[in-house]
């Protein structure tokens, strides 16, 4: 199943995605809920590790348009639908 919008995962059960069309990463990406991501981020800040944390130290709770669901199920809070247009004024 291909996701047609960007958003945050609010509920998830064994949810993994294929983001290779966007990132080139061929490994499945495990998704977790927004609450877990926020909690882990807050822990890293409290530990003083905010600037030294690796990119995978905070779990992924964002699904982007074009992502394919490989396993599991969940609920997504859609934040963007359609093409983003940049205006130069």
Distance between the termini: 38 Å
Helix content class:
10-25%
Number of strands: 4
Number of helices: 2
What percentage of amino acids are in beta strands?
Answer: 35-45%
Q: Helices and strands: which structural class?
A: alpha+beta
Order of helices and strands: EHEHEE
Question: In total, how many domains does the architecture comprise?
Answer: 1
The low-confidence runs, each spanning 5 or more residues with pLDDT under 50, are none
**What is the typical, i.e. mean, pLDDT?**
86
Taking the sheet with the most strands, its summary is: 4 strands, antiparallel
Q: How does the overall form come out from the CA principal axes?
A: globular
Radius of gyration: 14 Å
């Amino acid at each position: 199943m291909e996701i047609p919008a960007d958003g945050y995962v609010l509920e998830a059960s064994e949810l993994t995605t294929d983001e290779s069309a966007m990132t080139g990463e061929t490994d499945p990406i495990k998704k977790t809920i927004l609450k877990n991501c926020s909690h882990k981020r807050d822990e890293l800040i409290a530990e003083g590790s905010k600037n030294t944390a690796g990119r995978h130290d905070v779990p992924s709770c964002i699904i982007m348009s074009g992502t394919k669901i490989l396993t599991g199920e969940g609920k997504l809070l859609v934040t963007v639908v359609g093409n983003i247009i940049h205006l130069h004024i």
